[in-house]
Amino acid sequence: MQKRIVNWLRSNSLLIALAFTIVITILSLVKGEDIPLNTLVKDKIIHFSAYFILMMVWLFANENIKTPFEKWKVFLILVLFGIIIELLQGYLTNYRSMDWKDALANALGLLIGSLLYYVTREKNFKKNNQYLK
To answer: How far is the C-alpha of 133 from the C-alpha of 129, rounded, in Å?
Structure first.
């Protein structure tokens, strides 16, 4: 059962990454009145967490990336995406505001997500290949 779930996730990873990106875009641009956030800290934690997950799903969707440049390209594209969302909030809507602290929380989530992904991936790679020697 677990193997089937993992295979399903692998075969649909790009679709999952795109869907999560669309969800973040929509939630970032709709009125925030219905979202119960009463503290600044909770807002930044939500930004960090959403972009942490976003980084993980995009890296999982692109796990066949080989070169370091391509790996960083995913990170940079998602940082740019977060900045564009913040700009759209400031210029496209009159009910959301642009906040550089949100963009920073987004970027930190992306950075920690990518570091955790690569550290655990390297650890698992070494663990799984120790029997090949």
So the answer is: 7
